[in-house]
Every structure is written in structure tokens, then in C-alpha cells.
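anyone else get weird line breaks when pasting these?? whatever heres mine. first is seq + C-alpha cells for prot A
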Amino acid sequence: MKAAMIFDMDGTLFQTNRILEASLHDTFQLLRDEEMWEGDTPLKECREIMGVPLSVVWETLLPHHAIHVHEKVNEIFQDKLIENILSGMGALYPHTEDLLAYLAARGFPIFVASNGYPHYLDAIVKYYSLDQWISSWYSIQEIESKDKGELLRKVKENHGLTHGVVIGDRKSDFKGAEENQFLSIGCAFDFSQENELLEADIVVHDLMEIKDYLEKVK
């Protein structure tokens, strides 16, 4: 059986940066309107912690707000993200479709394991017709611990995987791959950090470099 290819979504297949700023600005403007926030939208802080569960994002960005406020803000943010996806503001990374088509044609099982919410992942997959190549997509919300390694373990067990490659851009992807005895490929894209990429087994700057790697090792 060929190694399963398990992709992260944000910052790996989908250019989240294309919709992040607008979605975050809209969300924090609503907070300003309700006099629950003063100052600029914390876009820089959000970029720095991309890759963590959204509950951690709101705990970090809104440390002095109650949990029910975090939950309300998250609902607004999710709605804005999907609205912007469906309006065509987002984009896949270059060669995403080429790589997925290549992998599928050669019999590699393809999955997504992401920190994104289920309806957010559904919106991306359906809008870009990625389900023609991706078998299943998993959200961290399915895991009580919100641990990426545990989410990858669920993918592994659900599909009886013995070999796998985790493709992502943040430390949680690489650590999760190691915990499950999978190879990790780090994507040096928008949200990646150099010190975290050091923990990946392989680093690429373009998705088609994954094809080149597979051609060399087959």
C-alpha cells in the first residue's frame, strides 16, 4: 500500500492569508461596535499563532474576555471566513490541483487533517472541488484534546494506514507526524516559521517539489 498523504489545510493547500485579514477585521469591528474592543485588529498576533486550535487563538487575542465572548466571536469569525471563501476571495496555493491530481492518479490515498472547523473545511473542499481527489477531511474539533497528533492518529486508525506523509506548515504538523511514525514535509509558505520548519523531515517552497521528491524515492 502506498503511503497516505495527509495535508494540513490553512497555509498548506489553502491561502488563508487571502481571507484572514478581511474576516478578522470584520469580526473585531463588530466587537468595537459593541464597545467590547478598542484599538487595531490584532492581525500580527493572529498570524504568529496560526496553526493552533481556534480556542487558543481567542484565549490569546482576547485574554480578558469571558469564554462566552470567545464562543460568540468564533461564530462570527467562522461566518466571515466562509462568506469570503464563497465570494471567491480565497485561493489555493499554486500547483495544489496539479499535485493532488498527480497523487490520486498514482494511487496515493489523500486526506486532510486540519485545525479548521468542519463547515469551514467543507466550504473549501466543495468550492474548489477538492473532493475529487481528497478521500476524507478531518477537523481538530473531532478530538477532545485538540491535539494534532491525536487527530492524525484518528486518520491513521480509521483507514488502517501503515505508512504516511504529513504535509503542513507548523510545528504541530511535524510533531504529530513524528508521534505517528509518519514522514513530515514542511511547507515554507505564509504562516510557516523557520525555527519550526527545522523540525520537518523535508522542507519545500512549492507544492510540486513534493512530486519531485516522490519521483526520486520511488
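and prot B, same format (seq, then C-alpha cells)
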Amino acid sequence: MNYYCTNCGGEFPKWSGKCSACGQWDSLAEALDQKVGSKTSKGSGKKRGAPNVISISNLSKKKQTTMTRISSGFVEFDRVMGGGMVPGSITLVAGEPGIGKSTILLQIALKVSADNKVLYISGEESISQIYSRISRVGNNSTYSENLLLSDETSLEGIAELISSQEPSFVIVDSIQSLESEVVRSSAGSIGQVRVCGALLTRLAKSTGVPIVVVGQINKEGSIAGPKVLEHVVDTVLHFEGGEFNSFRVLRSIKNRFGSTNEIGVFEMNETGLSEVANSSKLFLEGEGGMSGSAIGAVMQGSRVVFVEVQALVNERGMESGPLRRVANGIKKPRLDMLCAVLTKRGKVFLGDKDVFVNIVGGINIDNPTIDLAVCAAIKSAVNEKVLKNDTVYWGEVGLTGEVRGGFAAEMVLKESKRLGYSLVVLPKVSKLKTSLETKLLRDISSL
């Protein structure tokens, strides 16, 4: 008999009052032993069939390699998913409580049910509560007999529902509310989350039904529960957004069927979430008129997103203590490096100044091509010189002060022209063909 910790998931051969891995008291629970040589599938009560093996040449003959995706009805959601939901796939949608996960999935269920049978399972709300939310985000014309609601929390009961109703799409809200007979612990524990996630994945693969699972995280951003599912599921989507911000960003963290750099932008309103088709307009709402502001361009999957970078540089004077480098939207080590490069190579001394940088709109950017816009904003703040709001900065800055580009230069130029920008400042790129005015840089000193 084995035991596992319901807090961290660690496994132990004997019970103890305190988990030696995470230090949590009274967290060890008994795990059911599986008999060796048993012909019964774990947790299903059914006899296990012969192993499924098929030659890839036979797959080619049967033309099973092409999969017809199911559209969610949201262009932004489909883009993040890689073109829609793949049959037999399982997707984890994670985010803080109240961010809008259940809302957008309920809206997707209403849209998909117009042509397909959808099973919406909510272990956190009763059916009457779900219906009240449908009345808020939908209208009578969107109601369909194809949308089935259930408040089942037993995983074995959910398997029976999927088998009897044969839906084309399943939503489970949330994984923390499910319980399986395989594990002797309460719903939401690490053991339950891990087992329920594995069994749901097996269910999706065996039936060919795409399943979307909601995973809650706490206000501190800890995803200890859903984290154990990331290696099991096919796609991991993260819902981001500030508490006082009506905009939400859906980001792909893992995707076996598409790009992991895609983002989708939504706006929360009284009737639910609506798509923001031009995300660049969202991130450029407060541009122009002040020093310390520059427009940057970054690639997010297959799209070019323009963002406003704001910088504030404060003279220390007679103040003592360490210099402050505050970054919001980019990583602080990146800001520290750019400040050092500007001081050493860019003819902008920051050794006695506090530097604050913010990416407007609450978006987090890991793409290094935002470097040039950050440097331009900082230099503008130091010199108190207002930059033109029709100029775009794109490029990565190295430690030696050189400015580097990337594969997306042509796409940035094309999108800049489409949105009405007149000048693009970027690294010197060979074979660059454009009718748009450009300023080519070799190093940061010429910025």
C-alpha cells in the first residue's frame, strides 16, 4: 500500500503525519493499489482490450492524418488554438478566479451548439445558476437543443454521460471539482487532479471528442493543481488580465497542434466577452504628446502587435540607496541590461537615475525585438524629447550595443504601412524591399 501527499503529489511507502517533501501536516492519503496482471482498465471496471497498434502506411491509405477542426465561433480563440479544436484533443484553460474562463467557454458552447451537440459540465454551479449566466451572455435565439447541461462531479458519471449522449464537444468546469473512485481524497487535491486529468485525456483519445478543462489558480498566480496536468494535456491556454482592466489576453503556453506564441485579445462587458479584432489599437490608446513614449512592434505567433512603451527617468539628486529599475510588462533583468548598454554604448548616462518602464495595456512581452522601443523611450525621457507617434521601433539590442533583427522584418513593415505609420526604425537588414520610409541602425549609439 502506498501513500501520496495531497498538497505536493509526492509518493511514500508508508504513512506519516507530516509530508517530508513539502512539510505539510496531515496531507498524506492512501492510494489504491493496482493488481499486477489485471485485465481491468484502471477506474473503468471494463476489460482492457488488446494494445492498439497501426502502421503509418495504413494511416496514409485511410487518409486519417487530416483532422477536421471544430471552430469555437471566436476568431481570436481559434487563432490561439491553431485553427480550432482538434477531435480527440484535451485543452486546459487556466487563470485566476473571476478572470472570465467560464464566461468565454459558455459563450463558445452556445456558438458551437448551433451545429454540434455540446455537453457543458459544471461542478462549481448548479444547472439553474448556469442557465442564469446563459441568459446574461446569450439570447433566446442562441438557445439550442444541442446544448446539454450537467452538474455531475463524478468522473465515472461523466464518462457514462459522454458514452450515452455522444456529444461532439465537452467542457468541464472545473478540474478541481471532480472526484474519481480511483483516489481516496477530496476533490481538488493534487492526487484527484492528476488522476482525473489522466482519465479525461484517455477518454478524449478513445472517443475522439475534444474536451476543454478549466483549471483554477489562486490570486498569487500559483497553479500547483493544473501544473501537474501540463504534460498530459495537448494544449494549455492561460487567461490573463488585470483586476481593474476590462481587457483579457488569452495566451498559448503549450500547443501540440499550433504555435505557442499566439495571443487572443478580448474585452469584458455586460454581456460577456467580445473579441478585439485590432489588438494594436488596444495597446496604443494613450499614445502621443509626451516624452518617454515610443511605439514598438513584436511578433506574437502569426500576427504583428504594436505596443506603446512608456519610460520615466528620475534624477536621484542627493538621495541615497540603490538605483531603482522597475519593469512592468518586460522582465527586470532585461531592463537592467538595456540600462547598462545605454550607459556604456548609447551615450545615455543612467548611473545616477531611477528608471521605470511600462508596457501599456497590461501585456507581458518576452520578445527581445521590443528592446529598441524600450531604449528609445528611455532616451526620450532623459532628453525630454517627444518622439513622433507615427514612428515604429523594432529590433533586439545586444551587449556590445549592436542592433539585431529577425525573420519578421518584412511582416513588420507591411503591417506598419497598413496601419498608417510613416517611419520604421529597425536594424540594417539585407534585401529589404519596402516603399515605407525606414531608418536602418547598426548600433544603439545612432538611435
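btw re prot B: The first strand starts at residue 2 and ends at 5. The longest helix spans residues 190-207.
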